[in-house]
Amino acid sequence: MLRYRILIVDDEQIVRNSLRRLLENDEREILLAADLSQAKKMIRQFMPDVMIVDYKLGDENGIDLLPFVREYHPEAMVIVLTAYGNIALAVDAIKKGAYDFLQKESDPALLRHVIDKALEKVHLRKEVELLQLSQANRQASGPIVYQSPAMKRVMALANEYAQSDCTVLLEGETGTGKSMIAEYIHYSSQRKDKPLITINCGAIPRELIESELFGYDAGAFTGARSQGKVGLIEQADGGTLFLDEISDLAVELQSKLLYVLEKGEFLRVGGVKPKKVEVRFLAATNANLQALLQERKFRQDLYYRLNVGNIRIPPLRERKEDILPLARMFIQYFNKKFHKSIEGFTPEAEAELLQYPWPGNIRELRNIVERVLLISKSPVIGKKELRFLVDAQPGGLDDRVCHLEIELGQCDNALNYAIRRIVEHAWELSQHNQSTAARLLGIPRTTLQNYLQKYRLV
Asked: Do 380 and 342 touch, CB atoms closer than 8 A?
């Protein structure tokens, strides 16, 4: 059963309580605010579906709340009440985004009727969102679990962008779920029956990524296939191309990608005849693109072309309401995978999960749940199984110091041993994120990839 939140904003307590008694039932949660400041706090925290706002709030004007609602929670239905009703006020309220405008002296049955109609629209919208989410989750890598207002705003934006073909830039720290949001946008769009092609721009060696993206014609270079190769852009024709870690794309390739975005055509490597494509582009990055623009490591024109739609996915530490629902979802997943029957967490363990800053975000939470589920001998995960989190706070001096003790003359290759230990330490500290590990080591990402392969860390 869907549950709705109704916010009543009135400076008179007797009016607030009267409206609550009039409207409250098992399907509705009633929130109360006495002024605009309290109302804005309630909106940020609870994202109410319907708001009943008094026009006169002491020295404040209830209509002044409408621009805030339109910017912060545009899907909310706002009903303005006033004892000073006139046509001019009603027109002003509707122009600023109000759903309806009623006089306080109106029959209570009329208010109930208007609220019911507003909730019917909310119900329809929520059913559409649930249907889209269900469709996306069936085809994407897993369910998107969230309860926080921050993620509700992310999903609202994802829904909006899914209804258009605009290019979208997803920004956020590693492990926040950018790829899942990209999948959600694709599978909620009209392109859902067409291919979704994903490429990690930082995972493919620099000398190969051009041919991977654009493909090549026969005989384009030594070792090229005799029949040529279809690139990922061509494979995505009619569908979506998701460029993950777009900040790692070589500058010389950025201009070629920009041409595809603007003209809808490209040249294969070694080709002379342009190929037309109709592709929707999504891109993601965990880097500060504004800083890269200043350093001339990322093209400004490409940035603006990618940043038509923008979604910033907040880190897990900024949406603590999602930690426990995600952890419980991972328990269910790993119970099935490993044939376990863990019931959940003790209250003390849940407190530990909420206090930990989760520098690796959802990916780290998933790994931690998998780890403790495998070692737990109890049907409920307790605080002792999470004791290692206390010593796992990243960013401190002890974490960043790699302690080496080598007895020279006793190793076959002391230098190789030292390099391996340092690379392993950076790899673990970075939560297996190549960009972060390379920055910690002060080496290019391609050099790190060579070490990871050499020491069989990937």
From this structure: yes
